[in-house]
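Bug: token stream looks shifted between consecutive jobs. Job 1:
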Amino acid sequence: MARSRFLPDNFTLALLATVALASLLPASGRVAQGFEQATLAAVALLFFLHGAKLSRQAIVAGLSHWRLHLVVVASTFVLFPLIGWALRPVLQPLVTPELYLGVLFLCVLPATVQSSIAFTAMARGNMPAAVCAASGSTLLGIVITPLLVGWLLPGVPVAHSTAGAAGGGTHDLLASIGRITLQLFVPFLSGHLLRPWISGFVQRRAAVLKFVDQGSILLVVYTAFSAAVIEGLWRQIPLPALAGLVVVCAVILAIALATTTWVGRRFGFSKEDEITVVFCGSKKSLASGVPMAKVLFASHAVGAIVLPLMVFHQMQLMVCAVLAQRYARRPEGLAPADRIAAGAAAARVAETTRVP
């Protein structure tokens, strides 16, 4: 019997199980230190594999559509932060102040790559442009996300802060960008540069690499929630606040989807390009967000920071699955020969761009 599209997928269930494990058996002391080191290695491997999977052909194929990319970047790094900031007086009373800081962090993250491409393909959108837009968003987020964190989340405990009273904010910001560059971008770039030699190996072991991809995120979630639980996370978050968090995430996602749809049509994009704008401009990346939170914030603060992202992640998958199916049911807009050519081009891009 097929699973309903409204039920959580296996990875979401694994996330929930990981949070439960961290709540019941949190890692502490030397065990926690061991998990911290394992987490650093796992995250580096994760982004190394991301770089190895990204085809340069996909970058070239998607770069020409600059208007679409500007809209996606504006949605990801301008629209979302403005929504979180402008609606704070209305939405924060539904959750705790600590959870709303996590909501703001969610708003400044880059777009997700894997699901953006997958839903664009399912909906018969412009997949080469989706690959380029989503991947570019991830790379831009390495610099833009810490800048926006400094603006929207002042006062949140940062990781390894050594700044003094004078110039401390600037020092923290540069240190955050430096840590993200070292821990995320350098492995990503290394993987991409080595792609000519390792891409075949990566593609032949897709199932194993998917396990590494998801396992690294689960490891980060476990270490983050372990530290947060030891600091009293669940004592600080009442049950009504968790219900309020679902409402907050639903409101933000609804506004993002409505706005990207309207902008795609207002700018006169084709239906294929509108689909790409909607699915790349309305999502936030769990794969990038959890490691970034681990790099940017003190260990005890990470649990509450990433909880809104986990809720939003599952919500965006369920809602966008329904939207993608609706888009896919639209009448074909190309002649048969053009559809065959477009399908062949998309297949070639898909074969070389399996990016999480």
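Job 2, same session, no restart:
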Amino acid sequence: MEHITLLIGIVIITALVFDFTNGFHDTANAMATTISTGALGPRVAVAMSAVLNLVGAFLSVEVAKTISGGILDEDSGIRPEVIFAGLVGAILWNLVTWLAGLPSSSSHALFGGLIGATVASVGFEGVNGDAIVMKVLIPAVAAPLVAGIATLAATRLTYRLGRDRAPEDTAKGYRAGQIASAALVSLAHGTNDAQKTMGVITLALVTGGVIAPDSDPPMWVIVSAGLAIALGTYLGGWRIIRTMGKGITDIQPPQGFAAQTGAATVILASSHIGFALSTTQVCSGAVMGAGVGRKGGVVRWSTAGRMVIAWALTLPAAGLIAAGSALLADQGNWGVTAVAVLAVAGCAVIWALSRRKPVDAANVNEVGTTEPVGVITAALRSVAPPPVGSAAGSDTGIVTGPDTTAESTTDATDTTDTTDTTTEQPKAVATAGSAASAASSGTSS
């Protein structure tokens, strides 16, 4: 029993480490658009998000019940070693995608890790397939689509309502709206994502015989999970904030307001009914919808494509890492120790690699890469071409990000050539006139 108690303690600590990575991995969901538009400073934004994540952790336990007694069968012989291995898979995949600056799903990393470890240790009978399909896979596909479509409509409505107003007249209102909607997303994120760690810890307590099956998370579990995700949020996942705020599309304040409001609505609704969806996918879908919804706005589809690939890989990749960890952990105490040592070593390597090109609050809004105009972007522009001229561009919030650099340079070159041609003609006429006058003077003399 002493060994089980010690192991459960290790599982709880590992779960809180995952919760911490979930916090800084998903800070971008709430604050990327607010930071990119300048509605809030980076440090103030992440501090506000951290507080509201903590508050949100106390609002519901429905998602925690889905984790602890939904996707896995508590009576199938799952042991704390299995949960530990699942958490290791989720943490390592979270850090890999953070290093790449890709807003992948921490939720799906956790699900993939738990499923992979359970299948490797117990078999497929330890997994509730129906619950995975209904409460994980279907929301994973539907949620970003719903958020994207809702935000597209909201963005167009927002611009239509403000079309007769100067941008400086509406700037203060949109700034306040962005701050309020970002606060709502942070609250929703705490309500949904902090509960996932609560569910894992509760599952560990059930498998270790500490509490009865189908129990709600104890209060100390709720408090510790809320604090861990809040601390991770405060540190800020600046790499992913850069991708969400600047890499998908250049967000203007009206778009940021629409995207955050739409995402918060979807997340809160899913938390109420117990859907453990990915807040990352919801917020990413909302940002894409905001980019398409603005006339002249474009989405950088190559970046979006990399994100979708990461989404598709998250479940199997975290599952494979967790399965290998579970097979090693099943060997006994030395196996658990080996998994822990390898996990710490992997985290250290990823952290060292991240220091080569650090991203922090000072440079989070800098975008140092350019992206060519692709086929999808060109097609969108042919349907809704951006206004011509800098004045029109500033009034309508036209995208001038990396994906339009090449086109803008070409346009500028063409304009210069035309200007040179038109200015050279009067010069030639003037020169010819002076020569004629000189000749006439010479003849007279």
